[in-house]
Specification:
The chain is an alpha+beta fold and about 210 residues long. The chain has a single domain, classed as Sandwich (Jelly Rolls), CATH 2.60.120. It has a seven-stranded antiparallel β-sheet with strand order 1-2-11-8-13-6-3, covered by helices on one side. Strands 7-12-9-10 form a four-stranded antiparallel β-sheet, with no helix packed on it. The chain has a two-stranded antiparallel ribbon with strand order 4-5. The chain binds succinic acid (SIN) and fe (ii) ion. Succinic acid binds next to strand 9, strand 12 and strand 13. The site of succinic acid (SIN) has 10 residues, from strand 9, strand 12 and strand 13.
């Protein structure tokens, strides 16, 4: 585990190959019911390069009309999001140090050319609860900055099975994904290769 005084930690290889496989199956079974959709930027309507869906009582959304927000239903099917698998609740309990369970699990799908620009996760009321993220499939170069957009950044490779915790001060740090190492993993089924799944667990509301 690489931990730093600012509350950031990288747990390399938290999930072994068997656990990654089982988790990927649980995720893909839910994605089949709650399909990936194309998020778009507020105002401009420009598509993000990642595709998304969610698990849990609340899901993070963005589109031209509504902007960044949480909502309880899938924007296309209008169904409630599927449940968060127990494995991820157990992960949250093990690494978050937060007493309340996560309310949202954003599922990000990165094709070989997808990336995510530097941003801060800022749409949650529970701003002190950590963000816990899991990588499955192809590796990525993750970039972590600081509280300001212009400050220094560091980059690290996230492999399948790695877990990142943005806690403490780092909860408000800029972060993003520079690139995907297409073809670096054979974990996901052929239809999902090359590509990467990132799961982000978040507490959204302060209390129920
Ligand atoms: C995110 O910040 O939402 C995603 C991070 C990642 O894909 O590792
Ligand atoms: Fe983020």
């Amino acid at each position: 585990m690489i931990g730093t005084s600012d509350g950031f930690s990288l747990h390399s290889g938290w999930f072994d190959r068997g656990a990654q496989h089982a988790l990927a199956q649980e995720i893909l079974e839910r994605v089949a019911r709650s399909p990936l959709y194309q998020p778009t930027m507020p105002r401009t309507g420009k598509p993000l390069s990642v595709k998304m869906t969610n698990l849990g009582p609340l899901g993070w959304m963005t589109d031209k009309q509504g902007g960044y927000r949480y909502q309880s239903r899938h924007p296309v099917t209008d169904e409630p999001w599927p449940d968060i698998p127990e494995t991820l609740i157990a992960l949250w309990d093990a690494v978050s140090g937060w007493p309340d369970p996560p309310q949202a699990c954003l599922v990000n799908w990165y094709g070989p050319d997808a990336r995510m620009g530097l941003h801060v996760d800022a749409d949650e009321d529970a701003k002190s609860a950590p963000v816990v993220s899991v990588s499955l499939g192809d590796a990525a170069r993750f970039r972590l900055g600081g509280p300001t957009r212009k400050g220094p950044t560091r980059s690290m490779r996230l492999n399948s099975g790695d877990v990142v915790v943005l806690g403490g001060e780092s909860r408000r740090f800029h972060h993003g994904v520079d690139r995907i190492y297409a073809g670096s993993s054979t974990l996901l089924p052929p239809d999902w290769r090359p590509g990467r799944i990132n799961l982000t667990l978040r507490r959204v509301r302060q209390s129920f």
